[in-house]
Design a protein that fits this description.
By secondary structure, the protein is α+β, with helices and mostly antiparallel strands. It has one domain: Transcriptional regulator MraZ domain (Chemotaxis protein chec, 3-Layer(aba) Sandwich), CATH 3.40.1550.20. It has 5 helices and 8 strands.
């Protein structure tokens, strides 16, 4: 998953996903929190690999597993390509009116655009 996309978040917390992003994420995908105070989006296969990997770590990684899976939501874009970002996820990532989607190999990250731009890339 590659690329960088600047998008608006509307007043109903909806975000339009580019066609390429929708194609790579698939019809059903997952969004959860990240250690970098952004959100991560995984297609079903990448999500299953992540679940298998984290579940195999036994008890020592509970502090990683719990927030990752507790905050995860299954998503499906509507016929126009919009998803609704749940408020608890928007609050975590501090996403306001503008969002940046960046490709990161096996996942996409979703950032508040101001936060992403302040990182100096």
């Amino acid at each position: 998953m590659t690329g960088l996309y600047q998008k608006k978040v509307d007043s109903r917390s909806r975000l339009h996903l580019p066609v390429k992003v929708r194609a790579e994420l698939g019809e059903v995908f997952y969004i959860t929190i990240s250690a970098d105070t952004c959100l991560t989006m995984y297609n079903k296969d990448s999500w299953q690999e992540l679940a298998d990997k984290t579940n195999a770590t036994q008890n020592r990684e509970r502090s990683v597993r719990r927030p990752l899976f507790t905050n995860a939501v299954m998503c499906k874009a509507d016929k126009r390509g919009y998803i609704t970002i749940p408020q608890h996820l928007r609050d975590f990532a501090e996403i306001t009116d503008n969002a940046t989607i960046i490709g990161c190999g096996e996942k996409y990250e979703l950032w508040d655009s101001d936060k992403w731009n302040s990182r100096g890339r």
